[in-house]
C-alpha cells in the first residue's frame, strides 16, 4: 500500500508500548504486541503510528532516559521486531513515527559514562559547571520533576545539568560533535524505513545564560533558547529534510506562539508541526500543575482559537490533541465518566478533529478510556507523581489531600493498560503462558506493570467494535471525514460563540465549501441565541452524538420554531454541518 504523504489530511495514532499489548505474559507491553494489533489501528483509519521510546533504557522515566539510540530494549523485543513492525505497518499504508529524546540522555549512556570517567571529549557533551560555593549549585533552576536541576559530582567538584530526572543529563547542543551524533541517529532510523519523528521537548536544547532566576524556576533561560531555530534548521537539512515524505512534530515545552510560527512554518525548514500545551493548562493555577481547580472553559476557548487563527495567519501548522502519555484522560478531565460518558467523549473528539491541524489520537482515547481508579499511592509508578506526592506533603498537605491531587493529574492515568476486552487483564496480556504469542519468548504470566482499570468490563475495544454507535466508530468517522472533506484539512477557522459560557463552535471555509462545528461543552442543557447563531439553511448534518434529529425545546409542549437547530443543545451535544 502507499502512504498518505499529505500530513494535513493524516491522523496519527500514538502508542505507549509498555501499556499497549503484551505478547509474552511478562506484564510489559512489547513490539510483538504492537504488530499483533496493526489491523486494529488500520481499521481505525490512522495513517501513522507514533510510538514512545523503546530504545535501551534503565526506565527511570519510562524510556525517555535513553541509554542507546541504536538498539531496542530487550523488554520490548529485538531489532528484528522493529524491522517487522515497520514492514507490516507499511503493508497497511501506515508509517512509523519514532520518538527521539535529544535534549538529554540517560546517565547510563556511553557518552555520559565516558564523561564521568574523565574523558574530556565526552565531558563537552554535557553541562558540567562549578557551583556558586560549597554545596551550592550553579543556579537555582528547578527540575521539571521537582528538586534542583543540578546534580553534584564529587570527583570533579562540578555539577551537571538535568532539567528532568537526575538520571537524565542534558546534552550541550552548543557542541557541534553532539549535533553530528544526533544527525547520525536520525539518518540511521530513516535508513530503517521510519516515516516520521516526534522530537521530545525539543525547544529546550539551546540554553541561554546560566543565571539565577529570582522570579521563577529557570525556564526563561532555557525555553526557546537563542540558537534553537538554527539547530533545527541544521538537523532538517542534514536528515529528514532530504525526504519530503517524512513528517516531523516537535514537543514544545512552555513555548510561545510567536516561536511556533518559526518552528512549524511552511517555509522555515524546521518542523512540520508542533505540540503546544497551553490549552491543557486550563485546570492549572498559573503554571502550577499540582493543584485542584476547575477547568477554565473561557480560557480554553480563547487559547484554542488564538492558536488556530494566528498559526493559520502565519502559515504554520498545529498538531491538535487532547491526550498523550503525559496527560490525564480527557473524558475524565473535561467530560463525564458517568451518565454522559459516551456523549462527552464524542463531543470532545468532534471539537478537536474538525480543527485546522493534524489530529493525534492516544491509545484508548478512541474507546473513551478514563483516568485510573487507583486508591493508594502504592499503585502509582510515575516518577513525577511519586516525587510530587512527597513534595506536596512537605508543603503541608495531608497525605489524603496529596493523593487526591495525584489521582487527578498523574501521568499514570494515561498509562494504564489498553483495554482490549473484559477479561481479567483486559486482553492486554495473555491469561496463561500457553496463550502467549508463539513467536515471542515465553514467560510465567505476571501482573501487568500497572494495574488495569476496573471499568474494562464495559470500556473495551471488543465491545465497541461490535457496537455501531460506539465511541470507536465515531472516531473512525471523524478520521475518514478529514480525508473526504478538504475544508477540514485546509479551511480557515472562524470562532463562533466566543463569549458563550457553554458553547464551543466554529466555522471552516475552503474554496466554496463550508463546515460548522457546534458543541455544548457541559453536562446540562444550554441555549445559544442571538445574531451569531448560524443560519443552517442548505447545510446537511453529517455527524452528531445524539442519534435523533437536532433538539428543539418546547417550553409548553407545543412545537417551537427556532432560528437554528443548534439553538438548544442537550448535555454535551455536538453536531457537524456541511454544505
From TrEMBL:
Biological classification of the source: Bacteria, Bacillati, Actinomycetota, Actinomycetes, Bifidobacteriales
Protein name: Alpha,alpha-phosphotrehalase
Organism: Bifidobacterium callitrichos
Residue ranges annotated for the Glycosyl hydrolase family 13 catalytic domain, each copy included: 14-415
Keywords: Glycosidase, Hydrolase
UniProt enzyme class: hydrolase
NCBIfam families per UniProt: PRK10933.1 (NF008183)
Enzyme nomenclature, EC number: 3.2.1.93
Top-level taxonomic group: Bacteria
Family: Belongs to the glycosyl hydrolase 13 family.
GO biological process: oligosaccharide catabolic process
Gene Ontology molecular-function annotations: alpha,alpha-phosphotrehalase activity; alpha-amylase activity
Glycoprotein listed as a keyword: no
InterPro entries hit by this protein: GH (IPR017853), GH13_cat_dom (IPR006047), Glyco_hydro_b (IPR013780), O16G_dom_2 (IPR045857)
Amino acid at each position: 500500500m502507499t502512504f498518505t504523504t499529505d500530513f494535513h489530511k493524516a491522523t496519527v495514532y500514538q502508542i505507549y508500548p509498555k501499556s499497549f499489548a503484551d505478547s509474552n505474559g511478562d506484564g510489559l507491553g512489547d513490539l510483538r504486541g504492537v504488530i499483533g494489533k496493526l489491523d486494529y489501528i488500520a481499521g481505525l483509519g490512522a495513517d501513522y503510528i507514533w510510538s514512545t521510546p523503546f530504545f535501551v533504557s534503565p526506565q527511570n522515566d519510562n524510556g525517555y532516559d535513553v541509554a542507546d539510540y541504536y538498539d531496542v530494549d530487550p523488554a520490548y523485543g529485538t531489532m528484528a521486531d522493529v524491522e517487522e513492525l515497520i514492514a507490516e505497518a507499511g503493508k497497511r499504508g501506515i508509517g512509523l513515527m519514532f520518538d527521539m529524546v535529544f535534549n538529554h540522555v540517560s546517565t547510563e549512556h556511553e557518552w555520559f559514562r565516558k564523561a564521568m570517567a574523565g574523558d574530556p571529549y565526552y565531558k563537552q557533551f554535557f553541562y558540567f559547571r562549578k557551583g556558586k560555593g560549597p554545596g551550592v549549585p550553579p543556579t537555582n533552576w528547578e527540575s521539571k520533576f521537582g528538586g534542583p536541576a543540578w546534580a553534584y559530582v564529587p570527583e570533579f567538584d562540578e555539577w551537571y545539568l538535568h532539567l528532568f530526572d537526575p538520571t537524565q543529563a542534558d546534552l550541550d547542543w552548543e557542541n557541534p560533535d553532539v549535533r553530528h551524533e544526533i544527525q547520525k541517529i536520525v539518518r540511521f532510523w530513516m535508513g530503517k524505513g521510519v516515516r516520521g519523528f516526534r522530537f521530545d521537548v525539543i525547544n529546550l536544547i539551546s540554553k541561554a545564560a546560566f543565571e539565577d532566576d529570582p522570579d521563577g524556576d529557570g525556564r526563561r533561560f532555557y525555553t526557546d533558547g537563542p540558537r534553537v531555530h538554527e539547530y533545527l534548521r541544521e538537523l532538517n537539512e542534514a536528515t529528514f529534510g532530504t525526504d519530503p515524505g517524512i513528517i516531523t512534530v516537535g514537543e514544545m515545552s512552555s513555548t510561545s506562539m510567536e516561536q511556533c510560527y518559526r518552528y512549524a512554518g511552511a517555509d522555515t525548514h524546521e518542523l512540520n508541526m508542533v505540540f503546544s500545551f497551553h490549552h491543557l493548562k486550563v485546570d492549572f493555577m498559573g503554571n502550577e500543575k499540582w493543584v485542584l481547580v476547575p477547568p477554565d472553559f473561557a480560557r480554553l476557548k480563547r487559547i484554542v482559537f488564538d492558536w488556530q487563527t494566528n498559526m493559520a495567519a502565519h502559515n504554520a501548522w498545529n498538531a491538535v490533541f487532547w491526550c498523550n502519555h503525559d496527560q490525564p484522560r480527557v473524558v475524565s478531565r473535561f467530560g463525564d465518566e458517568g451518565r454522559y460518558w459516551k456523549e462527552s467523549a464524542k463531543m470532545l473528539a468532534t471539537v478537536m478533529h474538525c480543527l485546522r491541524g493534524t489530529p493525534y489520537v492516544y491509545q484508548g482515547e478512541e474507546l473513551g478510556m478514563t483516568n485510573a481508579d487507583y486508591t493508594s499511592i502504592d499503585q502509582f509508578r510515575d516518577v513525577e507523581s511519586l516525587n510530587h506526592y512527597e513534595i506536596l506533603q512537605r508543603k503541608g498537605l495531608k497525605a489524603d489531600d496529596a493523593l487526591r491531587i495525584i489521582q487527578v493529574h498523574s501521568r499514570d492515568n494515561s498509562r494504564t493498560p489498553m483495554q482490549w476486552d473484559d477479561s481479567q487483564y483486559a486482553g492486554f496480556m495473555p491469561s496463561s503462558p500457553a496463550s502467549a504469542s508463539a513467536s515471542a519468548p515465553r514467560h510465567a504470566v505476571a501482573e501487568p506493570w500497572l494495574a488495569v482499570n476496573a471499568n474494562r468490563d464495559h470500556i473495551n475495544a471488543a465491545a465497541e467494535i461490535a457496537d455501531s454507535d460506539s465511541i470507536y466508530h465515531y472516531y473512525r468517522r471523524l478520521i475518514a471525514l478529514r480525508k473526504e472533506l478538504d475544508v477540514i484539512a485546509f479551511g480557515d477557522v472562524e470562532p463562533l460563540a466566543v463569549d458563550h459560557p457553554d458553547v464551543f463552535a466554529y466555522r471552516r471555509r475552503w474554496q466554496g465549501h463550508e463546515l460548522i462545528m457546534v458543541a455544548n461543552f457541559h453536562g446540562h442543557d444550554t441555549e445559544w441565541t442571538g445574531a451569531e447563531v448560524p443560519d443552517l439553511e442548505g447545510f446537511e448534518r453529517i455527524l452528531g452524538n445524539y442519534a435523533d434529529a437536532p433538539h428543539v425545546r418546547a417550553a409548553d409542549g407545543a412545537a417551537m420554531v427556532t432560528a437554528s437547530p443548534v439553538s438548544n443543545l442537550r448535555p454535551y451535544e455536538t453536531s457537524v454541518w456541511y454544505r
